[in-house]
Specification:
By secondary structure, this protein is mostly helical. It has one domain. Helix 1 packs antiparallel against helix 2.
Amino acid sequence: MDTTKLDERRIALLALRAELEELAATNAQAREVVELDQQSVGRLSRMDALQGQAMAQETMRRRALELKRIEAALARIEEDEYGYCAKCGEEIVAARLDLDPMAALCAGCAR
């Protein structure tokens, strides 16, 4: 892979990482523990709050996984292994990396 394309992918990965970290910071309140004070909140409101909290926690878990994939892709760039399958060593098709710049496996090994 040429250095220009590699630099473009690095910049895109860094931008995606920054976006995910910013989203995580703005949604911190939604993941906080839900107060179960029956005096101030009705039962349905508490259930809504608990569901919202669970959804926010799952979203955070998925963002954390995406951040790990981004960090792994950035590490592969630094080690000059980006664009090559981690399993078989063959080059990953550029179209696959266009769709998922964090892909570590070629299409054949990903099945």
